[in-house]
Amino acid sequence: xxxxxxxxxxxxxxxxxxxxxxxxxxxxxxxxxxxxxxxxxxxxxxxxxxxxxxxxxxxxxxxxxxxxxxxxxxxxxxxxxxxxxxxxxxxxxxxxxxxxxxxxxxxxxxxxxxxxxxxxxxxxxxxxxxxxxxxxxxxxxxxxxxxxxxxxxxxxxxxxxxxxxxxxxxxxxxxxxxxxxxxxxxxxxxxxxxxxxxxxxxxxxxxxxxxxxxxxxxxxxxxxxxxxxxxxxxxxxxxxxxxxxxxxxxxxxxxxxxxxxxxxxxxxxxxxxxxxxxxxxxxxxxxxxxxxxxxxxxxxxxxxxxxxxxxxxxxxxxxxxxxxxxxxxxxxxxxxxxxxxxxxxxxxxxxxxxxxxxxxxxxxxxxxxxxxxx
Length: 374
Known about the structure:
CATH topology of the largest domain: hpI Integrase, Chain A
CATH class of the largest domain: Mainly Alpha
């Protein structure tokens, strides 16, 4: 790969023009005030070619917004991921980066944007936005449009939560579920959903996508085959990320899930009926669940609990029973590497039980269902 046709000529009084033919066989030129500047420009271009660091200058004039438009229509993105990225770009990245060319993006620009955004953006959204910007610019690096990715802030892609993630004890999970007033079907379903999230270890989207046909008689096994995204207000059903195939992993030996067997009274008939759906048969919105969940947390006197910590609880309880790494990965639908789940939770054999439910309320001493993947 060589640089051909290098020459410097007097363009007009006081202006010198340098030109060369690049490795792509296209001629490029620029004008300078002095002959020395023109020769330096040619020398720099030649050095870039020798070091294999040369790229077409006009490619760097493409804006970050143009790169984002191409990135967001990639066919390998899941619809839920595309919806997330589109929202991040529109609300948090586009106002700053839409019109800036990729060649002009510097590490200083990235640092300044990150510092300014940190004052008004939550840690998780900020980390997601930074990772998206880094991915966009990494495509430009792969296409040899820029030499290096300017997103080099140490730790910026990892959210820094206000407090460490913690696992609930089984007794706390039962107390949390019991704090949901089981006065009508919608709240009874949320009560059971809390137990499924905690003892089944499902993601919220996986649990809310469950259909009656995914439950074995008695609810001892839940088959996870789909997930609910957030690309629309009503949710979009799709397939979750691939999970290792195999036999269901054993559940902690506290009891068998009796509340799941009571769903017939609250869920429409038919294998395709959504288990944890609304009265109209739509998917349960995370915001609606979160409101009832926060009230239950406050009512039972627990410190703040994130919804995703129920899944963390399920993993921790399973680990406390001696489940192997492979069993935990199969149970949670993880691919390597496996997260470092806490093992400080007491073993389920010591789980205190809530009083037996009255005939008008669903059973509260629900154990974790076995979960299987496709």
